[in-house]
Design a protein that fits this description.
The chain is of the alpha/beta class. It is built from 17 helices and seven strands. The two termini are about 20 Å apart. It binds 1-O-phosphono-beta-D-fructofuranose (F1X). Keywords: Hydrolase, Manganese, Metal-binding.
Length: about 375
């Protein structure tokens, strides 16, 4: 195991401190504005707002406390949210938020995703219309060119995360060259029988993820695909099964090439070539290295697993302050199969870049490059 320090949020001015001190309160206010929640839910959200910024982490008071105990709660309950590992307190915050809005019931609000209005707004946005219309031109290109464009669409789609935009309003700064580009190695692993894609955000990220999977299935570069999503609403815009269905419907209801892809995806879901999985560990406050055996076996059975996004990156390599030149392979060698990541950089964790690249980024931006969302990478680990 690495001896790089686990990231915590206890240093004012640091990125994780800002997430807990500013992004979480902003999120609670946004959710309060988006729903006509009743007095009990509003009180619970107000209480969470105070607790999350000034209080300590408390039990949920439900049977889920047992699961969280198995995930380490005994060590952190009663302590400030800022003291626990960043990954742990962020995940626990989302679980508490769902408790406050009655997501797990009993009651009429059971199963109502507090983030759904924002996810749907993305699917209905003019930007999504534009991206779907562009597919008609893309299908006229050679298959190789289509594949490259769809991979990059899926990669940069990762900027479309609502949490990031809560604290980075107008995050439309131009994108830049990849800080690591192992895409040649990724393509060299195909074709495969089974590809797994561990999804990140719904809406404008999930659409290009689905288009990439459709392309791989349609062009025989994978026989089947397994799409891992979250088991409940998490990190604001993370995709769940309901979001996959919304996205496939959005595609199928579009025109031209987008509609063709939507229909193929619908058929692939129906005949099992595309399977959606939502494992309880998907919302665990732990790195994937700690995943349970059944999930490990699922990844082991895939010929290639692609992890999308910043949070999955943190959970794959470990949420630690590594030296950026630490080898990617050294942080992922425990993974039970070939693994790739498509990620825009939105938190402090980074491994696998060379010293010259790091020096150039620091010279140009200080440490902002780690969190600004304007840089991205494609990394691949094969044993
Ligand atoms: O996983 P995603 O959607 O790419 O990013 C999630 C994120 O916005 O949330 C975390 C902070 O709350 C950071 O890891 C990251 O910046």
């Amino acid at each position: 195991m690495s001896d790089a320090p686990v990231i915590r949020a206890d240093e004012p001015g640091s990125f994780p401190h800002g997430v807990l001190a500013a992004r979480h309160p902003a999120l609670i206010r946004t959710v309060l504005d988006a729903f006509p929640y009743g007095p009990d839910q509003r009180r619970a959200l107000d209480a969470l707002l105070t607790s999350a910024t000034e209080g300590v982490m408390e039990p949920l008071g439900t049977e889920d406390d047992e699961r969280w105990a198995a995930w380490g709660a005994r060590e952190y309950l009663g302590r400030s949210w800022f003291e626990a590992p960043f990954l742990w307190s962020e995940s626990y915050f989302y679980r508490h938020l769902l408790e406050a809005v009655g997501y797990f019931g009993p009651g009429a609000w059971q199963g109502i995703d507090p983030f759904r209005p924002f996810k749907l707004a993305e699917l209905d946005s003019p930007e999504t219309d534009g991206e779907l219309a562009a597919l008609d031109r893309l299908t006229e290109q050679p298959a190789e060119e289509q594949a490259r464009a769809l991979l990059h669409g899926s990669l940069w789609g990762n900027r479309a995360d609502l949490g990031f935009r809560l604290s980075t309003p107008g995050a439309t700064t131009p994108v830049s060259r990849l800080v690591v580009d192992d895409s040649a190695s990724l393509w060299s692993l195909l074709p495969v029988d089974t590809i797994c894609l561990v999804a990140d955000n719904a809406g404008r990220e999930l659409i290009p993820d689905l288009l990439l999977l459709d392309h791989l299935l349609h062009h025989g570069r994978a026989r089947r695909a397994v799409l891992h999503v979250k088991v409940y609403p998490y990190y604001i815009s993370d995709a769940m099964t309901a979001d996959v269905l919304d996205a496939v419907r959005r595609l199928a209801g579009a025109q031209g090439a987008a509609a063709d892809a939507g229909e193929r995806l619908w058929a692939a879901l129906a005949d099992g070539r595309l399977e959606v999985r939502a494992h309880p560990f998907s919302c665990a406050p732990l790195p994937y290295a700690d995943m349970p055996d059944d999930l490990r076996a699922e990844f082991a059975a895939a010929d290639l697993t692609i992890f999308k996004g910043d949070l999955n990156y943190r959970r794959l390599v470990g949420d630690r302050l590594y030296s950026p030149t630490t080898r990617f392979a050294d942080t992922t060698d425990w993974f039970p199969g070939p693994v790739a990541v498509l990620r825009t950089l939105k938190s402090d964790v980074i491994v696998g870049i060379d010293a010259a690249t790091e020096a150039a980024l620091v010279a140009a931006e200080g440490q902002r490059w780690r969190t600004s969302g304007t840089h991205a990478l494609i990394q691949v680990g094969v044993k």
